[in-house]
Design a protein that fits this description.
about 800 residues, mainly beta, 16-stranded antiparallel sheet, 4-stranded mixed sheet, 12 helices, about 40% strand
Length: about 800
């Protein structure tokens, strides 16, 4: 059927129509031609014409507008064949892909986000009309960062099946440098003094190639605000930046910035007062905010006072409090009276708290750490405390919260906590060979979030030529709903010290213990516990340090019998934890003090006191630079007597130094040495047949000393400092699982019962073999670089260390690697 009429309507975006009369007609049929991707039903939803309708040119014009507005079509024509109405359409091409080339300052992710906001993405139809806006927006961005020669070409490559590839080609060019920053109007402070405040650099010489004088609009604006704050903080209340001019050189390679300023005069705070509702706490706020009458006006102090009042009111549920400072300026006397207008608004309550992101940890484990409760008023202090306590859990990497208003309700909010979990335990397994320990095998599993309950389960097997140890422990941090913890452990140990450069002895022990922890407040906790231990010592070498134990428990009827002991140990401890997260903290501290002692009815009577602390001070606002210091002190001794011998700390309970405490030194290498004193034999007369009549002991002053092996001591001190720095080549989001630091370690172990004067009667060559193991001035030190990583197998520590202070017999270790959980 031939087409007889081509309807004339308003021309829109390339649609063309021809005149064919002005009369209306009744539609008997309707067609849409040219559809490919768009379904007929979808197109008809934008055509408000039905068969039987009486239509005219206006109706057709509005229909074409609706079709264009749908965003599916690039060209639309309308035809009439008698009472048949035909819409011929050409669909917009579909974007098959978007490609970027030459972009350096703008990352692909940023470009995709920008295009996405304009509905330009792969799989969507292309609206060619917005391409010029994209080019202009990107050019404006490059100008704002000083790239005035940047060029952008947006091209479209046609593909089969009405598809296109969108190409954005960038020629960014070089950034213009800040050639000069001119300040006009400053008399009180020199250009140099003011420009030292700003981040922008100007006209740098070639040898300062590590600095950057690149022009960026946002940086300049921020720098001018720093100058404004500088003046306001010094009392220049009328300071003003009158105008700013930015001039670009003809070759567009240099920028000149000129700021015209008015300094004004210094103003003193005449007084301050409040208006509005301070909930009856006006006098309290007056006494604690930093504003003071009679002092120079300080903009930072005024802002801090406003924020302090807001924060204070937010503790009591007034989360949307408004505080505004109204100055009443007396220019004649250069004074200002400040009125702080306070509007607390409505008290806000928490309707619901949601926990997101916990794939393993049960909701109740996270919620029991919260001090902000549902149904209670919203408190910023409780929210921050809740975040901190959740983040201290060793299986949490990061915690954030968001307060969400509820539509239609102005006094209630919901709170969403979003947590990011991290490996909750460690797996240790290895086979190694060492000159002392021979073939070693160890396997262990420690899980701080067992089955998502927040309970800790640890199982360890460690076996080598000289040591076999098996242990299992379980701790429930919320044994009672109010935070009382309970832990139980069982162990078995079979130890031969000869494999570890310790004085020879063998020990077999097993035992069971339990402990309870009681919270005092949010950061302080006390612990009490008890253990029953059965121990057997045998093959004890004869040394000065083992004499008391050998003598006190010696059985003359069976000289070679093992020494069997039953020990009942009681413990009490205090801990204070204020760190901002459980693993790799960057602020706060950990401190613990514990006392362990055997009861008087135990076979061995002794006590041990341990103090451990670690402090973190962030240097930078983003907590990527942190200074850390640690200290550990320990002392032990005996009490009472056994078989007429005063008890001392049993030698097998002596303190030692681990590789993690003093990096750069081998394990057990810096301990006091074991000493054996023996009589020097004197041969008898020689008979005619060459035989000797015998030997006799010489006088005590001719005794010999044999110094061999290490034995430990009853006092210990460890200290260290670390500068935690950003890990090179690592994304910022990985900083919570990897840590790099430069360190200095200092440590030593002493035997306070050692008296070197006991050997003063010996010959000088014998005394020279000794060191004063009770001398508090003896210590070792090392420095180096440490890399720590929370791996799927547990925390790993790699250290590169160099000894700063050592002694002749010390064994050093430049590189060490450990899987541990002591960070």
């Amino acid at each position: 059927m031939p087409i007889k009429k081509h309807l004339a309507v308003t021309s829109l975006l390339g649609a063309s129509f021809a005149a064919a009369g002005q009369s209306s007609f009744i539609v008997e049929d309707l067609k849409v031609e040219g559809l490919q991707r768009v379904a007929l039903g979808a197109a008809l939803t934008h055509i408000p014409i039905n068969v039987g309708d009486n239509i005219d040119e206006y109706t057709i014009s509005q229909t074409v507008k609706a079709l264009y507005k749908s965003g599916h079509f690039e060209d639309i024509s309308v035809y009439r064949d008698d009472e048949l109405l035909i819409f011929k359409v050409r669909e917009r091409p579909t974007i098959a892909s978007i490609e970027f080339d030459g972009n350096k300052d703008i990352k692909d992710e940023q470009l995709n986000d920008s295009l996405d906001q304009q509905n330009i993405r792969a799989g969507e139809p292309l609206d060619r009309t917005v391409l010029s806006n994209i080019e202009k927006g990107l050019i404006d961005f490059f100008h704002s960062i000083g790239k005035y020669n940047a060029k952008i070409k947006v091209s479209i490559t046609e593909l089969p099946r009405n598809r296109v590839r969108l190409n954005l080609d960038f020629d960014e060019g070089d950034a213009a440098s800040v050639r000069q920053i001119n300040l006009v109007g400053n008399e009180l402070f020199s250009d140099e003094e003011l420009l030292n405040l700003v981040e922008s650099q100007q006209d740098l010489p070639w040898w300062r190639f590590l600095s950057n004088d690149r022009y960026q609009k946002q940086t300049i604006e921020g720098d001018l605000e720093k100058i404004r704050s500088f003046y306001l903080d010094k009392g220049y209340l009328r300071f003003n930046i009158d105008s700013t001019q930015v001039s670009v050189s003809p070759e567009r390679e240099s920028v000149y910035v000129t700021a015209n300023i008015t300094e004004g005069k210094q103003y003193t705070v005449k007084g301050f007062d409040f208006i509005g509702d301070l909930l009856g706490r006006e006098e309290l706020l007056k006494s604690i905010i930093p504003l003071k009458t009679g002092e120079l006006y300080n903009g930072s102090v005024v802002t801090a006072s406003e924020e302090y009042i807001k924060s204070y009111l937010a503790r009591f549920g007034y989360a949307n409090a408004e505080v505004r400072t109204i100055p009443e300026i007396d220019d004649e006397n250069q004074e200002v009276k400040l009125t702080l207008s306070v509007n607390p608004g409505k008290r806000i309550y928490v309707r619901r708290i949601m926990v997101n992101g916990n794939q393993i940890t049960a909701d109740e484990v996270v919620r029991r750490e919260m001090t902000q409760l549902e149904g209670a008023w919203l408190s910023n202090q409780s929210l921050e405390r809740s975040k901190l306590q959740i983040q201290r859990l060793p299986y949490m990497e990061n915690v954030e919260f968001e307060v969400k208003p509820i539509a239609g309700i102005d006094d209630q909010v919901d709170v969403d906590f979003t947590v990011k979990e991290q490996p909750a335990g460690s797996f240790q397994a290895g086979v190694a060979y060492g000159s002392y320990a021979g073939l070693q095998f160890n396997i262990g599993v420690s899980e701080s979030n067992f089955l998502g309950t927040g309970n800790q389960l640890a199982f360890n097997i460690n076996t080598s030529k000289g040591s076999d140890r098996y242990s299992i422990s379980y701790t429930d941090p919320y044994f009672t709903p109010d935070g009382v913890s309970q832990g139980t452990s069982i162990f078995y140990s079979n130890y031969d010290s000869t494999a570890f450069s310790i004085v020879p002895y063998k020990s077999k022990s097993y035992g069971i213990g339990t402990n309870f922890g009681f919270p005092i407040d949010a950061v302080n906790r006390i612990n009490f516990g008890g253990r029953w231990i059965q121990e057997s010592l045998s093959d004890i070498a004869y040394y000065e340090q083992t004499l008391i134990m050998r003598s006190a428990f010696f059985n003359p009827e069976d000289p070679d019998a093992a020494y069997d002991f039953t020990k009942y140990e009681l413990s009490a401890g205090w801990s204070r934890i204020t760190v901002n997260r459980g693993m790799f903290p960057t602020a706060g501290s950990r401190q613990t003090l514990t006392l362990n002692a055997t009861t008087p009815n135990s076979d061995l009577n002794f006590f041990k006191i341990n103090y451990n602390s670690r402090f973190y001070w962030p240097i930078s606002n983003d907590h990527r630079w942190v200074f850390s210091a640690r200290a550990a002190l320990a002392y032990g001794n005996g009490y009472g007597s056994t078989n007429g011998f005063d008890q001392i700390l049993p030698f097998q309970e002596y303190f030692r130094i681990t590789e993690e405490e003093l990096r750069g030194f081998d394990r057990n290498t810096i301990l006091p040495e074991a000493i054996r004193r023996q009589t020097k034999p004197i041969n008898g007369s020689v008979l005619p047949d060459g035989s000797i009549t015998g030997t006799i002991g010489s006088a005590p002053e001719f005794d010999e000393l044999i110094v061999s092996g290490r034995i430990g001591g009853n006092a210990k001190a460890v200290a260290g400092m670390e500068l935690i720095v950003p890990t090179p080549f690592l994304d910022e989001d990985k900083t919570t699982s990897v840590r790099t630091s430069f360190f200095v370690d200092v440590a030593n172990v002493w035997d306070t019962e050692f008296d070197i004067d006991r050997y003063s009667d010996l010959q000088e060559e014998q005394v020279s073999k000794l060191r004063d193991y009770a001398d508090p001035g003896r210590f070792r030190a090392s420095t180096g670089l440490s890399l720590q990583w929370i791996s799927p197998m547990g925390p790993m520590l790699i250290s590169f260390a160099y000894p700063l202070k050592k002694e002749d017999k010390d064994e050093t270790k430049t590189i060490s690697f450990n899987i541990t959980n002591t960070f």
